[in-house]
Amino acid sequence: MRWTTVMPILAVCALVPAWGRTLSGVVIFVLAVLLAGAVMAAVHHAETVAHRIGEPFGALTLAVAVTVIEVSLIVSVMISGGEGAASLARDTVFAAVMICTTGMVGLSLLVGTLGGRTAVFNAEGAGGMLATVASLVTLTMVLPSFTTSQPGPRFTPVQLTFAAVASLVLYALFVLTQTIRHRDYFLPVTTEGEILTEEDHADPPSRRTALISLGLLLLALVAVVGLAKVESPVIETAVRKAGLPHAVVGVVIALLVLLPEMLAAIRAARRERLQTSLNLALGSATASIGLTIPTIAIAMIWIEGPLILGLGSTQLVLLLLALGVSTLTVVPGHATLLQAGIHLAIFAAFLFLTLRP
């Protein structure tokens, strides 16, 4: 009985008596811990199922599971209304992009270059992922700040539909390229440039283990969606009372969802498989935009109120800096401790300016 097995069961058991009731501070704290545990357990079981069924369905299973978690947290807060609800999707997805391209990549490079080592990876694969991230974030969150058909940094319904469809198409092309057409571009490489084949990977779990993980994954997703609904008003109230910008809510959601992937990326970098770390980081950013924005666009049919997707001036500058530096890091196919420090400095600036805009 590992924690990944116990946590979804505990979370669902706690959700039943807590639904629709006024809760005390201690109960709210316990539910928040269970929510975080259910998120991490869900991602763990999604990875287990993905490893069993293989590609391309494995990557899709993991991406869909993470998207369900992210969207449920976003929609729960948006439905509750309040200040900043209209821009929550933008803040969360932008936070995910910055966390992946600066924080996750920076930590992976830091671990991979400790001891004077040079981190090596496949420039073709990493470059393709970065180009996909740049295109997705520009189409969905940069353009709304410059379009003129509707006042404010918002898309018209037709523009939002186009952005959602384009995001899905780009994500589908990314999955096709990564899992079928050019899989070698995304496999780890040695310092001599030799590709590590899939035989170097761990053996897939048994059918019984995968089925158990599938059941626990569904249970964990139910717990996440339900607990997110219970906790969302509390999160907003806590942020407001602390005097913090509403964008902090989006950062908290993104960190919560991406924490398991970040830990997996660091573990891969410790084993000198930086390509795997970049796959996790840039792949998570691609899925966060390519699947979350279309899902939110569909959800807006039932959610009242505007949807603000356009980035502000400070966010645009940080995004431009992150994408520019990431390009210079990826192109050579290798990186040093200097690149790690630069990425982490940009990540620190993002966190600081979120708290003190």
TrEMBL record:
Residues 26-179, 213-354 form the Sodium/calcium exchanger membrane region domain. It is a multi-pass membrane protein. Pfam families: Na_Ca_ex. Keywords: Membrane, Transmembrane, Transmembrane helix. It is found in: Membrane. The keyword Cell cycle does not apply. It comes from the Bacteria. InterPro entries: Alkaline_pH_Ca-Antiporter, NaCa_Exmemb. This is Calcium:proton antiporter. It comes from Actinocorallia aurantiaca.
